[in-house]
Amino acid sequence: MRRCFPGKRYNITLLPGDGIGPEVVSIAKNVLQQAGSLEGLEFSFREMPVGGAALDLVGVPLPEDTISAAKDSDAVLLGAIGGYKWDKNEKHLKPETGLLQLRAGLKVFANLRPATVLPQLVDASTLKREVAEGVDLMVVRELTGGIYFGVPRGIKTNENGEEVGYNTEVYAAHEIDRIARVAFETARKRRGKLCSVDKANVLDASILWRRRVTALAAEYPDVELSHMYVDNAAMQLVRDPKQFDTIVTNNIFGDILSDEASMITGSIGMLPSASLSDSGPGLFEPIHGSAPDIAGQDKANPLATILSAAMLLKYGLGEEKAAKRIEDAVLGALNKGFRTGDIYSAGTKLVGCKEMGEEVLKSVDSHVQASV
């Protein structure tokens, strides 16, 4: 994670990707530029293809030029990847393969996904107000190990002539330790509670996970550590989400639980994420997909990508003041009643992707300090 010096100029790689990605990245770029300029920051942007867009352009989901540009930058802002058009491609030619390769290439192992129910949007949640109100949690997901990357993996024909698909859930001790440290440090900066989610009653990899996380807890006496099986965690997230502060878990469990947590907030279109490495550029992206069904129709919610730009500033560049400007500007636009379709409710003003972006920009310019 890089830290800044006043007046720095930063190189940002933009990866708009597919579907609504280009729409939301374009807006987030403008907000990032405006907030940065108010804090004396300059950005140099380089836009590169990835995912389906790269497949159509050069035939691979992650071109060499793209990963080289990403590695050479100070931070990477990604839109979305995937779409129906490429669903039948072979695995190595699927857009999602490009995303996995990008994460591996940047060596980003820690994925931070906040899920906060804003007071302005509490009624957008599908949960009862008394359950959703006040939810503020962070999912710390291990991103480059586990069943998504483990070997052996594949599809083969067994001795009976039947096809068999198999994957391997595997974690080395150092992989568990480094993600656990990120989680403990994150919890320490929040409310001091960490829940480690595993399936240690069934999976050997989870038994090691629990053992390593428990051992590390001695180094963080100010953090209260608990453990929970993933099936119970999935249930508790909708039953009583306020019990959670920081959650740490493996790749596949984190993938699922963070999406579940997103719906507590009322819309997956509201949630950003940060993927960090030990050193080098971080990868910042909304957790929503490419939504090809609404692409190009000015219906997308750009707020998750705008908030990802705020995380880029905060966690990627150490520019917390500029990040706060963006966070306040988003709250300012919401306080004025502007809503995209996914978070719309009676009594608010329905706007499209572009207009929502314009309202956030106005809030940045007017120095609106919104209350949370």
UniProtKB/TrEMBL annotation:
Keywords: Amino-acid biosynthesis, Branched-chain amino acid biosynthesis, Leucine biosynthesis, Magnesium, Manganese, Metal-binding, NAD, Oxidoreductase
MF GO annotations: 3-isopropylmalate dehydrogenase activity; magnesium ion binding; NAD binding
Enzyme type, top EC level: oxidoreductase
Chemical reaction(s) catalysed: (2R,3S)-3-isopropylmalate + NAD(+) = 4-methyl-2-oxopentanoate + CO2 + NADH
GO terms classed as biological process: L-leucine biosynthetic process
Record EC number: 1.1.1.85
Keyword flag Amino-acid biosynthesis: yes
Cofactor, free-text remark: Binds 1 Mg(2+) or Mn(2+) ion per subunit.
Pathway: Amino-acid biosynthesis; L-leucine biosynthesis; L-leucine from 3-methyl-2-oxobutanoate: step 3/4
Needed cofactors: Mg(2+); Mn(2+)
Listed InterPro entries: IsoCit/isopropylmalate_DH_CS, IsoPropMal-DH-like_dom, Isopropylmalate_DH
Domain Isopropylmalate dehydrogenase-like positions: 11-360
A Pfam match: Iso_dh
Record-linked SUPFAM superfamilies: Isocitrate/Isopropylmalate dehydrogenase-like (SSF53659)
Similarity annotation: Belongs to the isocitrate and isopropylmalate dehydrogenases family.
Binding partners and assembly: Homodimer.
Function summary: Catalyzes the oxidation of 3-carboxy-2-hydroxy-4-methylpentanoate (3-isopropylmalate) to 3-carboxy-4-methyl-2-oxopentanoate. The product decarboxylates to 4-methyl-2 oxopentanoate.
Protein name (Swiss-Prot/TrEMBL): 3-isopropylmalate dehydrogenase
Organism expressing this protein natively: Brassica carinata
